[in-house]
Design brief:
Elements: H1 2-9, H2 24-31, H3 47-58, E1 68-71, E2 80-86, E3 98-103, E4 113-115, H4 118-127
Antiparallel strand pairs: 1-2, 2-3, 3-4
Keywords: Signal
């Protein structure tokens, strides 16, 4: 499941049609004055970034020390990052992996926003380009 997501994230993509390509989509993009830019390829989080995220996410969990994480790469150079977290519920059982979205600024800044609601996090992750259908 996670491997399928990782494979889907490996290929770089652009924000619009390639203007150098001899395609109708590329011609339309150029005619409309649309500027294409390459979106950066996915980058795995560093150990320090993961530690910052764990500290921020853990503040919203019942038993932060028991949480298990599936880290997803940062895509497109964006500060919003998604992960899957499996944490214990009020009954002491693992609830299953849930989407979590968090704002992780580059350069060592503090995690300023964490979305623990799985539905809202899923919406944010799809909006930021995570291929959630692979899961």
């Amino acid at each position: 499941m996670i491997m399928a997501l990782a494979l889907a994230l490996q290929s770089p993509f652009s924000s619009c049609a390639d203007p150098d390509a001899a395609t109708a989509a590329g011609a339309r993009a150029l005619a409309a004055g649309e500027k294409c830019r390459k979106i950066l390829p996915p980058v795995q989080l560093t150990a320090a970034e993961k530690a910052r995220a764990v500290a921020a996410i853990g503040r919203g969990l019942r038993d932060a020390s028991s949480a298990r994480y599936e880290w997803l790469p940062r895509i497109g150079g964006r500060p919003t990052v998604c992960a899957l977290v499996n944490a214990k519920n009020a009954y002491g059982a693992y609830a299953g992996f849930q989407w979590v979205a968090f704002f992780l600024p580059a350069g060592g800044g503090a995690v300023t926003s964490v979305e623990l609601d799985p539905g809202e996090a899923y919406l944010q992750c799809t909006a930021f380009g995570y291929p959630t259908e692979a899961l």
